[in-house]
Amino acid sequence: MRYVFDEFVLCSRSFSIARAQHRLSVEPRVFDLVLYLMENRHRVVTKLELLSAVWAGSRVCNSALTRCVCLARRTFLPLSPIRTVHTRGYQWTTQLWCGDDWLPGGESSRLAPDNSRDELAQARRRQPRVG
């Protein structure tokens, strides 16, 4: 799967992040953290869940997570796609374009914007209010 936002492309198959077609050097755990946040962008991901998902059973402290988030944020400067929800966790906030089948020239035949937040908001407006 490829995730595109601004001038960045993250490819989960090749474990790479590129900016303006230049591959960036990113630590494996930083990549895993970014990918996990992107895949779970519709909600706040708790610190405990991130530690479990990215470090898979290894015993690490919160400072390892904080360092990883800091490096991820530095990768995407001047953008700020990772929001801290104090005492809870983190959330990916930048709209993504997602696609698998890429055509020459960098365009995708199945590339579509991630509009699920808009769709969720519309569905909530359609529901009758209770109480």
- Report the CATH architecture: Orthogonal Bundle
* Radius of gyration over all CA atoms, rounded: 16 Å
CATH topology: Arc Repressor Mutant, subunit A
How do the helices and strands follow one another from N- to C-terminus? EEEEHEHHEEEEH
Q: Tell me the number of structural domains.
A: 1
Task: Return the average pLDDT rounded to an integer.
Answer: 81
Helix content: 25-40%
Q: Give the tally of β-strands.
A: 9
Q: Structural class given helices, strands, pairing?
A: alpha+beta
Q: Provide the spatial order of strands within the biggest beta sheet.
A: 4-3-2-1-8-9
The termini sit apart by 42 Å
CATH class: Mainly Alpha
Task: Provide a descriptive summary of the structure in words.
By secondary structure, the chain is an alpha+beta fold. It has one domain (2-126): Winged helix-like DNA-binding domain superfamily/Winged helix DNA-binding domain (Arc Repressor Mutant, subunit A, Orthogonal Bundle), CATH 1.10.10. Helix content is 35%, strand content 22%. The chain is built from 4 helices and 9 strands; from the N terminus they run ββββαβααββββα. The strands form 2 sheets. A 6-stranded antiparallel beta sheet has the order 4-3-2-1-8-9, covered by helices on one side. Strands 5-7-6 form a 3-stranded antiparallel beta sheet. A hairpin with a 4-residue loop joins strand 2 (8-11) and strand 3 (16-19). Helix 1 packs across helix 2 (47-55) and helix 1 (28-39) packs across helix 3. It starts with a strand and ends in a 5-residue tail after the last helix. Mean pLDDT is 81; it is low at 101-113 and 119-131.
